[in-house]
Amino acid sequence: MAIDPALFQENERTAPSADQRQFVEVGSLDCETGGHLPAVTVAYETWGVLSPAKDNAILVCHALSGDSHAIGWWERLIGPGKAIDTNQFFVIGTNALGGCQGTTGPDSIGPDGKFYRTRFPVITVGDMVEVQSRVIDILGIDRLHAVTGGSMGGMQALEWTVRKPGRVKKAFVTASCAAHNAMQIGFNEAARQAIMRDERWKEGEYEEGAGPDGGLAVARMIGHLSFLSEQAFDAKFGRRLQNKETPSYHLGVDFQVESYLSYQGEKFTKRFDANSLLYLTKAIDYYDLQSFKGADTDYLFASFTTDWLYPSHQSETLLKMAQDSDLKAEHRVIDLPYGHDGFLLDGDIQGGYVREFLS
Question: pTM for the whole thing?
Answer without folding.
Answer: 0.95
